[in-house]
Each structure stands twice: as C-alpha cells, then as structure tokens.
Amino acid sequence: MIDLDFDRQHLWHPYTSMQEPLPVYPVIGASGVRLELENGTTLIDGMASWWSAIHGYRQPVLDAAVTAQLGLMSHVMFGGLTHAPAIELGKLLVELTPNGLDKIFLCDSGSVSVEVAIKLALQYWISLGQHSKSKLLTIRKGYHGDTFAAMAVSDPTTGMHHLFNAVLQPHLFVTEPQTPFGEICPASELDEMRNVLAAQHQVLAAVILEPIVQGAGRMYFYAADYLRQVRQLCDEYGVLLIADEIATGFGRSGKMFACEHAGITPDILCLGKALTGGYMTLAATLCTSDISTAISHAGGVFMHGPTFMANPLACAVAVASINLLLASPWQQRIAAIEAQLWHELGPCRDSTQVKDVRVLGAMGVVEMRTPVNMAQAQQFFVKRGVWIRPFGTLVYVMPPYIIKSDELSQLTAAILEFTQAPSAR
C-alpha cells in the first residue's frame, strides 16, 4: 500500500499547501496513454505528464535505450569528459533545430535551460564590452520556469511568482500578443514593443518569449506574424532573441519547433520536457556561433556547469525518443488530434460558463469565465476515467501523440460535461 498519510505529512507537491494539501492519486503503473491507480482504476492521461510523455508510457524502444545505457554507465561528469549519447543527441539537435543554432549546452531541467539562456545573453554583451546591456524585455502573461532568473521574466502580476517581486531582478514587459494564431498581426500591435526597443535598446540584452504558444501563463496561441515582426525588431535594434520552446518543442504545435510557424531562427533556443519523451529530466540551450565566439574569445569560458548536465542515461533516451518521433507519422497524428479537438471541444462554447475554446496542434484549451476549483475538478475527471489537471480558469489537454480517437473522445467528453456541470466548479 502506498503510504498516503506520509505523503500528506511530508511530501510537498508542486503549487500546493502543506496545511491544506490537494488530494493526490497513487499511481502504481503506466502504459500507453493510461495511468494505473492503486485501487485498480485506469485513467487516460490528457496531460502527457506536463507535455513531456509524447510517446506515452512503457514505450519499448525507450525502455530498451535506458536499459542498454544502464549496462554501460548511468552517469559521468561532463567536465573534461564526453560520451557517445551526448554527441549523438547534439548531432540530432543541430540537424533539427532552425538553421544557425549549432552550439549546445546540455543541462538538467527547463528552468535551468532558461537560466543558461539568460546568462548566455548577458555574458555575450559583457564579452563585447557592452556592460550596460543587462536587462531583458518580454511579453506579459508569459511563464519561463520557477528558478530566479526564469521567474524574473515571467509575468510579475498575473503569474505565480508575484510574491517574489521584491527580490527578483527587474526587467521590462510589454502587452502580450492579441491576434490569434492563423490571422495576420497588424504592425500596430507591436508599437509598444517597438517603442521600448527604440528607447531602451542600449540596456537590453535580449527579448525572451514563448514562440506562438504562451503556455502555463495563458494557454494562448498567437499569430506567427507577431513572432516574425519581433525577430525583425530585435535585428533592427541589436538585441538578441531567446525562444523558450520547452513546452512546444518536438511537434506539439504541429511543427517540430514552434519557431517554424514564423520561419525564424532565434539567437538562443531553450528545449526540455519532450526532449526525452518524458523518461528523464534533461534540457538543452542552443545558440549561434556568434554568441559562442564572443564569449569564448581570448580564452573566455561560459560560467555554468550543472553536476548532472549531459547525463548519459538521459541523453541516450533523448536520442531514442527523437529518432522514434522522426520514424513515426507524427505530423499526421498531430493533425488528426487537432481536427478532433476542434470538433469535440467546439460545443463547449454553448455553455454560458465558457469564455473561449482554443486548439493548436495537440493542444486543446477551454477557458472558463471563473476560476476552477482544483480539488473538485480533479475528482470530477478521475470519476470519468481521465487525468486532466486544470489551473486558474483553464481546462486543457495535451495528450501523448499516440492517443487513439476513442481515447481522445473520452477526454473531450469529460471536459464538455464539466463545462455543463456547475456543481463541479
């Protein structure tokens, strides 16, 4: 028996109180798209373990990759040493990511990849003797992680880190994109960003944003033209562009990387989550040769080095996961999920409790007019055999790509029922 009393007394789950902890559901196994609870209940996982388990669970190819690497070595420091899994992963990332991103720093979590990106941007300008370029510019309602530099560029008002505003490094924020994905963004929508860049580019090291998909802060899909214009503005004013693709990388938006929707290459790219297919924690920060050359000039070194960076187990399963994705009909799968989500979530608009329905790739969002009661919502969905974890006013799914149409229908039916059941909210 899983000791839930100990869990409640001692284990601090994310974004929860230890005084009034939310209910937790004990998992004893997972296979395909299903989670098995201790009481025998199975749940269709609509969250892909927070965007990461794109191939589902107990995937034989990924299991074999971990097992094979375990027989060689589980870990070795990356300082002064190297290994084949890291090199193979690096080759894949250089090949797949937008052209020009050919230097790779392998770290150990999404938040750390953002920290690395910010440090790269700052050290780049320091190396060029432009010490005044020490601020970042970003869009409101963004989310970039829970560590301090990442928190500082997440939304300071509506985000989950406002408690720390007094101690976070202050940066510059402009209004978030308003034009939805698939529409042409008017140039006037970037007037505020253009004005800030014009006035402050001497102190700005980089613009950082989540391309196309604002994730945990908003779950909103914005126009690709907005991203294209941001790239142009960064070039015009001599400011680096950091793209946080931790959530969107590896197919989630319908492209391998969301930047492809706009046809742009950032100066720095952050990857994580689906990098290993959800098997192990691993992240990567990629940058251009211009950045690495400036930092490394005259013997300069980049001042970062996580203990578990480039962990061989994680790199091995990442290589296997990427190759598995490339060998699969992933574009067709994402397109089919997208079409089904549009069709089956669309009726949620008929509820007076629903403000909006949004779909892009393998992401479906129902925005409620009032905040969702998390504990009641979780119980509601578990009773219907699905795992969906809302936050704020958002009820959303981003299932594994291997989900079957009947399994996806079970997720969407539960969401539709939820929108029509006031007692569940």
Q: What this model shows, in words?
A:
This protein has about 425 residues and is α/β, with parallel strands linked by helices. The chain folds into 2 domains: about 5-60 and about 330-425, Aspartate Aminotransferase, domain 1; about 65-325, Type I PLP-dependent aspartate aminotransferase-like (Major domain) (Aspartate Aminotransferase, domain 2). Helices cover about 35% and strands about 15% of the residues. It contains 13 helices and 16 strands. It has helices at about 5-10, 50, 60-70, 85-95, 110-125, 150, 190-200, 225-235, 290-295, 310-325, 330-345, 375-385, 405-420, and strands at about 25-30, 35, 40-45, 100-105, 135-140, 170-175, 205-210, 215, 220, 240-245, 270, 285-290, 355-360, 365-370, 385, 395. Strands 4-12-11-10-7-5-6 form a 7-stranded mixed beta sheet, sandwiched between helices. Strands 1-2-3-15 form a 4-stranded mixed beta sheet. Strand 2 (about 35) and strand 3 form a beta hairpin. The longest helix is centred in the first third of the chain and has 18 residues, at about 110-125.
Overall CATH class of the largest domain: Alpha Beta
Largest sheet: 7 strands, mixed
Gyration radius (Cα, Å) is: 21 Å
Q: Mean pLDDT across all residues, rounded? A: 96
Quaternary structure classification: single chain
Q: What's the total helix number? A: 13
The CATH architecture of the largest domain can be named as: 3-Layer(aba) Sandwich
Rough outline: globular
What is the CATH superfamily classification of the largest domain? Type I PLP-dependent aspartate aminotransferase-like (Major domain)
Beta-strand fraction estimate:
15-25%
Compute the number of strand runs: 16
Q: Regions with pLDDT < 50 over 5+ consecutive residues? A: none
What gap, in angstroms, lies between the N and C termini? 31 Å
What string, H for helix and E for strand, traces the elements in order?
A: HEEEHHHEHEHEHEEEHEEEHHHEEHEEH
CATH topology of the largest domain: Aspartate Aminotransferase, domain 2
The overall number of domains is 2
